[in-house]
Amino acid sequence: MSGNSISQPFDVVIIGGGAIGCFAAYYLRSRPAPPRVAVIERDPAYRLASTPRASGGVRRLFAAPENIALSNFSIPVFQDFASLMEVDGERPDIGFRKNGYLFIVPPQAVATLERNFERQRRLGVNVALLTPAEVKARFPSMRVDDLGAAVHSPDDGWLDPHSTLMAVRRKAVALGAEFVADEVTALHAAGGLVRSVELASGAQLRTGAVVNAAGAWAAQICAMVGMEVPIAPLRRYEHYFECEEPIEPLPYVKDTNRLAFRPEGKGYSGGVPTLREPRGFNFEMDHGYFENIVWPALAHRFPQFEKTRCKSTLPGLYDQNDFDGNPIIGPWSGGLANFHLAAGFSGHGLMHAPGSGLAISEYILDGRCSSLDLDRLGWQRIVAGQPYPEQGII
Ligand SMILES: Cc1cc2nc3c(=O)[nH]c(=O)nc-3n(C[C@H](O)[C@H](O)[C@H](O)COP(=O)(O)OP(=O)(O)OC[C@H]3O[C@@H](n4cnc5c(N)ncnc54)[C@H](O)[C@@H]3O)c2cc1C
């Protein structure tokens, strides 16, 4: 649909049609008497978007109750995707694998891991605290002599990000969300509210509310209304590699030295994300990164990876919240009241997209989010200068 042919006005304009924007559209349009929703996406093939470049890990292993709540809501949605996202009798397969997650930590991080484990258990997560010997018994290929403990969550796992995005987008369209292939270039406000959204095609969309779901580009959208957010693009590589030596079936393994990987087809998918990376829209490849950083980390943990071969690498962007590594979800309190943020997910955005979409729909339609208690993830903490970071979780 092109900008000029759109009839107006909209109740909600969502900027960005990645996972976050699509789930927001899905939940808004799932209401009885749904609002009129437009999703503006300038890159409908998603060539640079973060969602299709994600690793696909979905886990409940967080410290903040809000993040655990987002996962507790979102992961069952992914499990039920085939029926929830069915369109015209077609049930999408998003390759959900409930093969578990394993967080492994050195001795000095055990106390934090145990605190997080207790909280996860209290919040209903199926988790087991394992000694290094117990880890070895389950995953005999893993080197454990430098580990202090591990937490295993068997109900977590991974999925295929691209099929997930396509399925929720298709469902949102089927429910009546209008996708517009265009770029948002300006936002016009008056009387404390955003009144219209200007597109590169020249179209102006009048709207009752706006959702900034522009991911790594979210700060650019905020700048259009004079809002400064601490969200910046952070390059991160996802590698696909194979191993000549056999290894037993593994869960998604996450090491505190930031190694994170999971089985994928005949091999594995993962990498070693780092925060020590200049912020910016950088999609350049560093061909030495796998060999110099990822390979030693893999071979340290599993001797079989001495013989690994990296077959492909894809760079993508985290929408990194440099304030505290957690998303900002909800209205711009103290600013334009109908301008909503759902960005800054810092590497957790795909797994938390259903819960965030639900929250945004409730903030807009009900004035508050009652299904999930996400108050502490709101804009207020940034204004108050009170970071709310995860503890011991990467
Ligand atoms: C390598 C890598 C691995 C990751 N692994 C995981 C993982 O295992 N699990 C997990 O949960 N998350 C993971 N993530 C993070 C996850 O991918 C993101 O948090 C999530 O996809 C963010 O979704 P989004 O919809 O906000 O952003 P995007 O998918 O980037 O969508 C934003 C969209 O906004 C559009 N846009 C921007 N500006 C404009 C404009 N002015 N006008 C119109 N459209 C605009 C863009 O074109 C883009 O399509 C990973 C990320 C990377 C890079």
Q: Given the structure, what is the number of helices?
A: 10
Helical content (DSSP H or I, runs of 4+) = 25-40%
Largest sheet: 8 strands, mixed
Q: What's the alpha carbon Rg, rounded to whole Å?
A: 21 Å
Shape descriptor: globular
Ligands bound to this protein structure = flavin-adenine dinucleotide
Mean pLDDT across all amino acids? 96
Head-to-tail CA distance between termini? 40 Å
Taken in chain order, the helices and strands follow as EHEEHHEHEHEEHEEEEHEEEEHEEEHH
Q: Based on helices, strands and strand pairing, what is the structural class?
A: alpha/beta
Which segments are poorly predicted (pLDDT under 50) over 5 or more consecutive residues?
A: none
> Got a strand count?
18
Residue fraction in strands: 25-35%
Q: Please, could you describe this protein's structure?
A:
26% of the residues lie in helices and 26% in strands. With 394 residues, the protein is α/β, with parallel strands linked by helices. Strands 1, 2, 8, 9, 10, 11, 17 and 18 form an eight-stranded mixed β-sheet that branches. The protein has an eight-stranded mixed β-sheet with strand order 5-6-4-13-14-15-12-16, with helices on both faces. A hairpin with a 4-residue loop joins strand 10 and strand 11. The longest helix has 15 residues, at 65-79. It starts with 9 loop residues before the first strand and ends in an 11-residue tail after the last helix. The model has no long low-confidence stretch (mean pLDDT 96). Flavin-adenine dinucleotide (FAD) binds at residues 15-21, 40-43, 46, 49-51, 53-57, 183-184, 213-217, 236, 238, 316-319, 343, 345, 347-351. Flavin-adenine dinucleotide is lined by residues 15-21, 40-43, 46, 49-51, 53-57, 183-184, 213-217, 236, 238, 316-319, 343, 345, 347-351.
